[in-house]
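quick q for whoever's on today - can somebody do inverse folding on this one?? i tried earlier but teh output was garbage lol. C-alpha cells:
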C-alpha cells in the first residue's frame, strides 16, 4: 500500500497535554530534573543511539521516560526508528505505517517513506491498519519527546530534521525476533540511525491477569499466583514486583537475547514491549558481531519507577524503566 496522509495525535488532550506551550514546559521540566551526568557520563551519552522508554500516560511515565531521552544522542541522526507493541489488534510478525507524517502538538514529524518502502519490499512486514495505527498509543507517546530532543539537538524545525520509521512488533517467538533483528541490524550499524523501543514493564494485578508473588524480597524463589484470599504474606507484594522487574532488566542488560527470552518464559512477566525489546536485542547482537559489550550494544538502565506500590491483591501497578545502549 502506498503511503499517504497524516496520522492524527489521537491521545493528545487525554494521555498528554494538547497545548504545545504547556507540553513543552512539562517536557523541559522533566528533562531538566534528570542529572546532567550519570555514572560519570555527561548526558546525552555520545553514540547512545538506542533507548528503551515507557509509553503510559505522561502523568505516570513521563518523568521516567525523560531519563532515556536525555541520554539519547541524536547529533548524527537522520532517521529515528520507533518500535512498539500492538495494543489495538493481534499482530504476528511486524508491521509498517502507511502514513507519511505523524501529528504532534508541536507540528508534524515526517515518515521516512523510502526506508519504509525498503522494509516493505523485503516481504517480511505487513501494513498497520490505519484505524489501528491511529488508535495505538505505544508509538504516539514517544513523538513529543522525539520532537523535543530533535529540536534541542538540531534547532528549529526544518526539512533537514530526522525522519521517523514507525514499526509495530507483534507476538513473535524468539527465532522470529532474531529474524527481524537480522533485518534491522544493518540500520543499527549506520550511525545516521537512532532507535526508540517502546515498553512498560510489569503490569501487576487481577485486571492484568498477573498476580505472581515472590515470597523472598531478595531472590525469585518459588513463584505463585495470589488470589483475594491471600492476606498473610511474607513480604510486601511490591517488593516481589521489583524482583521480577529487576530480573527482566538484568536479562536485557546481559546483551543476550536468549537470556531475556528465558527470563520471560520463567516468570511470565507482563513486559508489554517484550517483542520490540527482543527484536532490538537480537539486532544489537548481530550489529555488534555477536559480542555485545558496554560500549557496543549493551543496555544500561538509568531509571525504574512504578505507578503505585502494591500492598494487596486488590491493588494494581505498572512498572516503567528507561535504558540506553551505545552502538
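ok took a stab at it. sequence:
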Amino acid at each position: 500500500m502506498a503511503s499517504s496522509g497524516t496520522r492524527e495525535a489521537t491521545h493528545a488532550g487525554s494521555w498528554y497535554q494538547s497545548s504545545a506551550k504547556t507540553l513543552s514546559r512539562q517536557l523541559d521540566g522533566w528533562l531538566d530534573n534528570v542529572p546532567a551526568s550519570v555514572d560519570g557520563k555527561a548526558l546525552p551519552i555520545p553514540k547512545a543511539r538506542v533507548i528503551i522508554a515507557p509509553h503510559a500516560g505522561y502523568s505516570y511515565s513521563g518523568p521516567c521516560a525523560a531519563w532515556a531521552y536525555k541520554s539519547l544522542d541524536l547529533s548524527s541522526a537522520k532517521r529515528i526508528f520507533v518500535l512498539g507493541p500492538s495494543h489495538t489488534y493481534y499482530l504476528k510478525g511486524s508491521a509498517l505505517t502507511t502514513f507519511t507524517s505523524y501529528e504532534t502538538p508541536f507540528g508534524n514529524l515526517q515518515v521516512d517513506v523510502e526506508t519504509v518502502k525498503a522494509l516493505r519490499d523485503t516481504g517480511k512486514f505487513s501494513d498497520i491498519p490505519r484505524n489501528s495505527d491511529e488508535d495505538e498509543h505505544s508509538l504516539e507517546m514517544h513523538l513529543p519527546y522525539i520532537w523535543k530532543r530533535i529540536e534541542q539537538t538540531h534547532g528549529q524545525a526544518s526539512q533537514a530534521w530526522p525522519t521517523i520509521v514507525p514499526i509495530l512488533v507483534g507476538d513473535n517467538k524468539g527465532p522470529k525476533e532474531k529474524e527481524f533483528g537480522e533485518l534491522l541490524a544493518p540500520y543499527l550499524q549506520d550511525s545516521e540511525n537512532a532507535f526508540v523501543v517502546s515498553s512498560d514493564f510489569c503490569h501487576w494485578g487481577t485486571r492484568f491477569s498477573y498476580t505472581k508473588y515472590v515470597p523472598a524480597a531478595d531472590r525469585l524463589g518459588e513463584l505463585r499466583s495470589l488470589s483475594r484470599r491471600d492476606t498473610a504474606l511474607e513480604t510486601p507484594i511490591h517488593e516481589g514486583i521489583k524482583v521480577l522487574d529487576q530480573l527482566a532488566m538484568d536479562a536485557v542488560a546481559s546483551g543476550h537475547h536468549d537470556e531475556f527470552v528465558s527470563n520471560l518464559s520463567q516468570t511470565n512477566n507482563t513486559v508489554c514491549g517484550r517483542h520490540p525489546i527482543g527484536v532490538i536485542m537480537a539486532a544489537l547482537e548481530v550489529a555488534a558481531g555477536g559480542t555485545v559489550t558496554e560500549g557496543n550494544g549493551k543496555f544500561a538502565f538509568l531509571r525504574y519507577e512504578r505507578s503505585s506500590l502494591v500492598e494487596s491483591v486488590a491493588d494494581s501497578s505498572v512498572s516503567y524503566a528507561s535504558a540506553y545502549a551505545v552502538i
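fwiw The mean pLDDT is 95. also The first strand starts at residue 6 and ends at 7. so keep that in mind when u check it
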